[in-house]
Amino acid sequence: MSSSAAAQSLRPNDLQAYWMPFTANRAFKQAPRIVASAKDMHYFTPEGRAILDGTAGLWCANAGHSRAPIVAAIQAQAAELDFAPPFQFGHPKVFALASRVAALAPGDLDHVFFTNSGSEAVDTALKIALAYHNIRGEGARQRLIGRERGYHGVGFGGTAVGGMVANRKVFGALLAGVDHLPSTYNRAEQAFTKGEPEWGAHLADELERIVGLHDASTIAAVIVEPMAGSTGVLPAPKGYLERLRAICDKYGILLIFDEVICGFGRLGRAFAAERYGVLPDMITFAKGVTSGTVPMGGVLVRKGIYEAFMKGPEHAVELFHGYTYSGHPLACAAGLATLDLYVEEDLFARSAKLEPFWADAIHSLKGLPNVLDIRTVGLTAAIDLAAKPDAPGKRGFEAMDHAFHQFDLLVRIAGDSLVLTPPLIVSEAQIGEIVEKTGKAIKAAA
Q1: Which of 130, 235, 304, 385 is the most buried (most CB within 10 A)?
Q2: For residue 361, what are the contacts with CB-CB under 8 A and spacing of at least 6?
Q3: What is the pLDDT of residues 384-429, one digit of tens each?
C-alpha cells in the first residue's frame, strides 16, 4: 500500500455519522482536525504531520503518549484477564491499584471507589455524601453546593453543581436544591497572576451566607475544584480552600475536591490537596490515573465516611452503587503501569520544578494583540483573548484552528480563552516551541 493510500485509510470517508462531543460539528467537518497516532509529546495526522501536544490530550496524558511500559501492561492484561465482574467478585490488580492511589493521597483518604470517568466520579461522590448523611440520621441534608464557573463533568449531578452556563442552560434544573458559591476570579484584582492570586480568600465566606439562607441542617456537601480548569485555569486564591474547610467543619458539611484535572502531578503534587495543605472529605480523580490510555476514574474517601457504611449484617451490600466497568482489569493494569512511570521518572517533582520556567515563558505573551489576561499555576495556563464584538468565542476558535492547521500545535479553548496543559514530560525547549506557536496563533486570529 502506498503512503498516500495508507494515509487515506486512516481518514474517515464520511464524517457525518459521528456526533462529536463539545465540538462545533459543522465547522469541524468543513476543515477536520484529525490525528491518527501519537508518541510522547506529539500527535500525528493521517498524512504524518507532527502536532505538538500542548494539552496532554484533554488534561490526561500526563506521562505523554504511547509510553511503552503502559502499552505493554495493557496488552498483557488483555491476554490474561479481559474482564472480571465487579459486583461480589474482584481481581488482584483492582486491590493493588486502590492501595497505590490511597497511598498517594494525604491524611486518612484511605478508600477508593472506582468509576470510569470524572463525570461518574463526581456523581458517585455526591451520592456517597447524600447516603452518608442519611445513614447517620441526618437525611434532611440533601442540598449540594457548587461554584460559579466550576466544571464537574456531564452527569446529572455534576452538571447541576457545575457553574458553566453553556453546560447547564438547555438542560433545565436537573437536581433541585442546588446552590452555588461565587467564582473566585476577578480580572481587575488578579490579572496576569503567576500561581495562586493574593486576592479572593474572603470569597469562601459566601458559604456562611448560603448556610444562613438554607440552614446547615439541609446541606450535604460542597464541591469545588482547587484549580478550575475547564473554565480557563482559575487557581484558588491564597487561603481560600483553608477557609472553606473551616466553614464546612463548623457546620458538619462534607467538602469534596474535584481533582479530575488537578490530580497526578498537574499542580506539582500527587493531588492539589497536598499542595494546599487542606484535607477534603473526598477527592474525585480520573484522567491522569492512567495517563488517558484506558478510561478510569474514582473517588478517594476518608476513613470515617467509609466506616460509617460498614454496619449491619456482613453479608449485606453497604452501598447500592457501582458500574459494570468499575475497576476494569485493563484500566487497572494501565493505572499501575502509569503510577510506576510517574515514580521512575519523578514526574510530579519534575512538574513542580518546571512551574517557574513555564510561568515565565507563558507570561511573555503579554502584550500580544487582544490578550486581556494570562494565568498560570502548576503546568497549566490560560490566555484570555478579547472577544469579537459580534461573535463571542470566535476569536478563540480561530486561534485554535490556526494553531493546528498552520503551526502544528494542539491547544484547547474555553470560549475566547486558550488553555495549555502539556504532558509532564515536556522539555524546556518544547515549552519554548509551545509559546512561540501560541503567539503566532494569537496574531493570526487578531
Answers
A1: 235
A2: 431, 432, 434, 435
A3: 999 999 999 999 999 999 999 999 999 999 999 999 999 999 999 9
